[in-house]
Each structure stands twice: as structure tokens, then as C-alpha cells.
Amino acid sequence: MVHPDHALSPAWPFGQQLAITPYPNGNAALENPSLFSGRHGTDWIVAPGAPNPVVSAPNAGHLSDPDLVYLEDRRELYLYYRQAASRNFVWLKASPDGSAGRLPSW
Question: For 34-66, what is each residue's pLDDT tens digit?
């Protein structure tokens, strides 16, 4: 795994979120942002109801560099990530209510 990013979301029942990109054997085609949840910061599980990876590989380039932001007042979790192709693009996926059960609607 590479590019870990952590977000504390106390209002969310799963407590903490961790975004990573797997990088098995240096294969950038499999470097797709994935999301995990945990209560203690040491034991991580696939976020309940979330697709993993959250975003699949595009037709061009690869995905990397996830960044998580939790907006407590809105109870929203934002996942930013980069698509590296002939140019770099930054994309955003957002959970509308901070609920892992809503992640598939991203």
C-alpha cells in the first residue's frame, strides 16, 4: 500500500477513515483509491457498504494520492485523488451524509 491518508470522523459511527492505494508488485494499474474504517487506528476493515476500490482504473493513466477530508458540521466525507495520464487531473468523490452505507452512491 502507498499514499495513506487518515481522517478522524467522530460523528461517524466508524470513528476513523483511512484511504490508501494498493501497489502490488509496483503495478500502477492496480493503484486505485480504497477506503477502510477503524475505531482505534490500528485495526482497519473495509468500510461497511463501501465499494473497494472506491474508484476503478481509468482508460488512461492510473489513480493515486488519495486525500480524505471529513467535514464534521456537514457530516460529509470527501475523497480527493489524482489521475495521472498525459496530464494530471484531481477528482473528488463525496459521501453525502458521512455514512459508509451511502458510499456506493459516490
Answer: 888 877 667 788 876 777 888 887 787 889 899
Residue 75, sorted as left (phi over 0), alpha (psi -120 to 50) or beta, turns out to be: left
Question: What's the whole-number mean pLDDT along residues 2-14?
Answer: 67
Number of domains in the chain: 1
106: in domain: no
**Domain presence at residue 105:** no
Q: Residue for cell digits 503495478?
A: 27
Q: Answer whether 11's CB lies under 8 Å from 98's CB.
A: yes
Rounded-to-5 percentages of helix, strand, coil across the chain: 10, 45, 40
Count other C-beta atoms under 10 Å from residue 87's C-beta: 8
The stretch 65-83 carries a mean pLDDT of 86
